[in-house]
Design brief:
mainly alpha; two-stranded antiparallel sheet; 5 helices; 4% strand
Length: 137
């Protein structure tokens, strides 16, 4: 296997397309906010693709989100991220790259990566409990 730098230069145009799709998806979801700078996010994305999808190394599970927020994130966004993963896979297949065709390639790595790099802006998180008098009626 080629080293990471050679691999990156060979796939950089395709990786940029995937990165832009991911950034667009995050920006469309107003409840999500990146907790890292764009350059760091880009480099982390490339590294994640190379390590977890090309080298098939299992991802780490050190999430920034609380257990409750992580569960909420996965319940709310996993379907969309699966669709995004399928779109990534189709784009790569259409360009004759087999990045997402490994035996252990699935959307979990992408869900895990996104959850490590975002924070949730949840307006409902701090809602007060309903007024007792209102509930009596």
């Amino acid at each position: 296997m080629k080293n990471k730098i050679q691999w990156f230069y060979q796939h950089r145009l395709l990786l940029n397309i995937l990165y832009k799709k991911l950034k667009n998806w995050i920006s469309k979801n107003k409840e999500l906010i990146l907790i890292v700078e764009n350059n760091e996010f880009y480099n982390s994305f490339i590294y994640m693709i190379y390590i977890e999808y090309v080298q098939n190394i299992k991802p780490s599970n050190n999430n920034i989100l609380s257990e409750f927020d992580l569960e909420y994130f996965e319940l709310k966004y996993s379907s969309d991220i699966i669709d995004l993963y399928i779109e990534f896979k189709n784009i790569c297949n259409n360009h004759c790259y087999n990045i997402f065709n490994g035996y252990c390639c699935n959307s979990y790595n992408l869900i895990n990566f996104i959850s490590k790099n975002i924070n949730l802006i949840n307006d409902n998180q701090y809602e007060e409990e309903p007024d007792k008098h209102y509930l009596e009626y």
